[in-house]
């Protein structure tokens, strides 16, 4: 076979630099979509603010938590909850790209193959940073007073972003496995509801029925909520930080290759 | 190296573990600098062929080189030398026209300093300058196709795959797109075009391959195909099926092809429409059969298929007759 044919002249940047550029290009396109589609912006920003107001002023009065005001208990939980709900957007977005044939078009381009998934998870990360800032500001406005100090607050944020990033890969898999975006959404909610609500996000798990407690205490979302809350409030975190890091690394070690394999198969 | 932009040999592609054979022993030789047409109805394997040649799909067996690069072994080199656009007009709805082109340029690994002026030129060239900063969600079907085509051209590839570029477009948009494609070929681009429309293949493609159920059933220039087929279709309508079948026997030898009887309608493909119509009228009149309608029209893809395969383009393969693949293969011929 002949190799003398010449492809059109390209830039001389190294393939690694182009791979990074591809990931950023994909991430940028996802973020533009996030801002331009009103429903996705509502989902990403308005909804968590509504949750803050709902739990702070409607339910908060009847929820007693030990040692601190409920608002201090609530805001770290909302942060974790928002990143989980936001990950559903990963599933929907990928399913939509597949459905519309965009991923097929990307396949015929000389771009880095992993850029579609990596770009999606990177844009999720950027969105979560934004959400973190919005919720922190809104939280402080409604009385949230984190006493853990700024370094621990930042550590809590980093931990939360790590946890969320790993979750994105899981929902990327869901999005690639679903035949369309509606199904991706339908599959996602039965996953996120139990892990979000049967957790230490909104209420302490020791008030839950005995049969539910073992799950509620040990599942990764509760561990993440406990860790983020402990760091932000300056209260003991126990093992929860390490457990959350372990869950995150374990999840990405399994879900990352799973999503990548699925991507190779469907795209 | 070969002078062919695309050289595919004995391509086979199965789906569902061999249950469905989308392509069966398809070989193509696409010369550089012209439009090559892949003609066939839905499900004939055209899109599968384009997906294999553009490295989206692997062939089950067979080999193909695109611009001298092997589609299986050197997919990246192939991707750098092709542009792909098609009926699904896969533009990003949430981006503007200009953002779409810049995204594709960047994913083609072109520097910004090249992509920005190039995008602007293409938008201008395709009449999209006014819409450049609107999200493509607001674009009409024709505008999307043009943007899709512009995106395929950002990297200035020597070879373009156009998968049913005008399917579903209104006549004006179709004419516009045809003019654009002709302009590209004048500029030296090679185009592999798939289409369901004989008219489109006739207008654009120098050479044609006709696909049916994953097999090549005819190949040649569009003139060769048409000559073989006859240039005009004579359509005669009657008030009942008896008259139709009686008339079909009378006028059968006006055409070189067997008459096609569909209920009360008889169709004949003929060389010279007016002469054939006059002759048919004389015979029908002499036999005192009442004619309710007479039309002359251009042959359609259906007519091609009817003549080449004995079934209409839309029909699923018939299972009730003894037409195994070997029989159909025997119909494959160069015209």
Tell me what you see in this structure.
The complex is a heterodimer of chains A (267) and B (335). Chain A is an all-alpha fold and 267 residues long. Chain A has one domain (15-266). Helix content of chain A is 75%, strand content 0%. Chain A is built from ten helices and no strands. Chain A has helices at residues 15-36, 38-59, 70-99, 102-107, 115-141, 150-177, 181-197, 213-218, 220-233, 240-266. In chain A, helix 1 (15-36) crosses helix 2 and helix 6 (150-177) runs parallel beside helix 10 (240-266). The longest helix of chain A has 30 residues, at 70-99. Chain A is elongated. The model of chain A is unreliable at 1-9 (pLDDT under 50). Chain B has 335 residues and is α/β, with parallel strands linked by helices. Chain B has twelve helices and 15 strands. Chain B has helices spanning 46-53, 75-80, 97-107, 112-125, 141-153, 171-186, 198-204, 222-229, 241-251, 273-286, 301-309, 325-331; strands spanning 4-15, 20-31, 35-39, 61-66, 69-70, 82-86, 159-163, 190-195, 207-212, 215-221, 232-238, 260-262, 265-270, 291-297, 333-334. A seven-stranded mixed β-sheet of chain B has the order 6-7-8-3-9-10-15, with helices on both faces. Chain B has a four-stranded antiparallel β-sheet with strand order 2-1-4-5. In chain B, strand 12 and strand 13 form a beta hairpin. The A-B interface holds A 1-5, 7-8, 10-11, 13, 18, 21-22, 25, 29, 32-33, 36-37, 100-102, 104-111, 115 and B 1-2, 51, 54-56, 65, 67-70, 73-74, 76-77, 79-82, 84, 88, 90, 92-95, 99, 103-104, 106-111, 135, 155-158.
């Amino acid at each position: 076979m002949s190799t003398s044919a010449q492809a059109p002249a390209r830039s001389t940047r190294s393939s690694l630099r182009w791979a990074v550029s591809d990931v950023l290009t994909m991430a940028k396109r996802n973020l533009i979509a996030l801002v331009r589609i009103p429903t996705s912006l509502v989902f990403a920003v308005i909804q968590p603010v509504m949750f803050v107001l709902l739990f702070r002023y409607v339910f908060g009065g009847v929820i007693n938590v030990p040692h601190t005001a409920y608002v201090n208990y609530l805001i770290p939980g909302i942060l974790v909850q928002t990143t989980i709900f936001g990950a559903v957007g990963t599933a929907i977005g990928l399913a939509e790209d597949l459905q519309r044939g965009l991923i097929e078009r990307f396949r015929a381009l000389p771009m880095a193959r992993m850029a579609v998934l990596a770009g999606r998870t990177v844009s999720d990360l950027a969105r979560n940073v934004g959400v973190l800032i919005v919720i922190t500001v809104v939280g402080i406005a409604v009385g949230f007073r984190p006493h853990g100090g700024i370094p621990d607050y930042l550590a809590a944020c980093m931990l939360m972003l790590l946890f969320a990033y790993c979750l994105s890969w899981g929902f990327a898999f869901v999005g690639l496995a679903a035949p369309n975006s509606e199904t991706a959404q339908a599959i996602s909610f039965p996953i996120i509801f139990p892990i979000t609500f049967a957790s230490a996000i909104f209420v302490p798990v020791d008030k839950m029925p005995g049969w539910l407690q073992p799950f509620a205490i040990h599942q990764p979302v509760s561990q993440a909520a406990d860790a983020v809350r402990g760091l932000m409030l300056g209260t003991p975190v126990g093992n929860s930080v390490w457990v959350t890091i372990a869950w995150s690394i374990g999840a990405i070690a399994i879900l990352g290759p799973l999503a990548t394999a699925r991507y190779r198969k469907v795209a | 190296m070969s002078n062919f932009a695309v050289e595919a040999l004995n391509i086979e592609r199965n789906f569902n573990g061999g249950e469905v054979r989308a392509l069966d022993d398809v070989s193509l030789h696409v010369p550089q600098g012209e439009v090559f047409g892949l003609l066939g109805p839905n499900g004939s394997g055209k899109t599968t062929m384009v997906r294999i040649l553009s490295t989206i799909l692997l062939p089950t067996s067979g080999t193909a080189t695109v611009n001298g690069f092997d589609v299986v072994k050197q997919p990246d080199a192939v991707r750098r030398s092709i542009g792909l656009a098609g009926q699904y007009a896969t533009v990003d709805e949430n981006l503007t026209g200009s953002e779409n082109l810049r995204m594709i340029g960047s994913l083609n690994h072109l520097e910004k300093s090249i992509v920005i002026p190039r995008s602007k030129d293409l938008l201008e060239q395709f009449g999209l300058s006014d819409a450049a900063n609107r999200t493509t969600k607001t674009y009409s079907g024709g505008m999307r196709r043009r943007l899709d085509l512009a995106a395929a051209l950002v990297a200035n590839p020597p070879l373009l795959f156009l998968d049913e570029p005008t399917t579903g477009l209104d006549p004006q948009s179709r004419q516009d797109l045809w003019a654009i494609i002709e302009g590209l070929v004048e500029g030296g681009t090679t185009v592999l075009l798939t289409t369901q429309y004989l008219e489109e293949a006739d207008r654009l493609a120098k050479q044609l391959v006709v696909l049916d159920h994953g097999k090549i059933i005819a190949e040649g220039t569009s003139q060769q195909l048409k000559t073989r087929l006859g240039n005009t279709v004579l359509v005669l309508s009657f008030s009942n099926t008896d008259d139709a079948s009686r008339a079909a026997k009378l006028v059968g030898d006006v055409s070189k092809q067997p008459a096609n009887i569909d209920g009360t309608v008889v169709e004949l493909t003929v060389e010279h429409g007016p002469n054939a119509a006059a002759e048919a009228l004389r015979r029908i009149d002499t036999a005192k059969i009442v004619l309710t309608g007479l039309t002359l029209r251009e042959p359609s893809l259906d007519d091609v298929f009817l003549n080449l395969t004995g079934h209409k383009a839309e029909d699923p393969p018939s299972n009730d007759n003894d037409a195994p693949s070997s029989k159909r293969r025997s119909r494959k011929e160069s015209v």
